[in-house]
Amino acid sequence: MEKESERYEEYFDLYDKNRNLIGKKHRRGDKLGDGEYHWNCYTFGQ
């Protein structure tokens, strides 16, 4: 039986070092190219 994570691919926008969108999408798990960045934000609450 395949895992749910194997059925769906997650894509996100790529940015340059100045946080400007570069117009490309990136698939989770693939290696980022030179000058490509993915920004994360984590929020925790009670």
What does this structure look like?
- This protein is mostly beta strands and 46 residues long.
- The chain has one domain (1-33).
- It is built from one helix and two strands.
- The chain has one helix at residues 4-7; strands at 11-15, 21-27.
- The protein has a two-stranded antiparallel ribbon with strand order 1-2.
- 0% of the residues are buried.
- The mean pLDDT is 89.
Overall form: flat
Give the helix tally. 1
Strand order of the largest sheet: 1-2
Residue share in helix:
under 10%
The computed structural class is mainly beta
Report the sheet-strand fraction: 25-35%
How many strand elements? 2
What is the residue-mean pLDDT, rounded to a whole number? 89
The count of domains is: 1
Radius of gyration: 14 Å
What is the H/E string?
HEE
* Unreliable segments of 5+ consecutive residues: none
Report the biggest beta sheet as strand number plus sense, adding barrel if it closes: 2 strands, antiparallel
Distance between the termini: 36 Å
Short description:
The chain has one helix spanning 4-7; strands at residues 11-15, 21-27. The chain is mainly beta and 46 residues long.
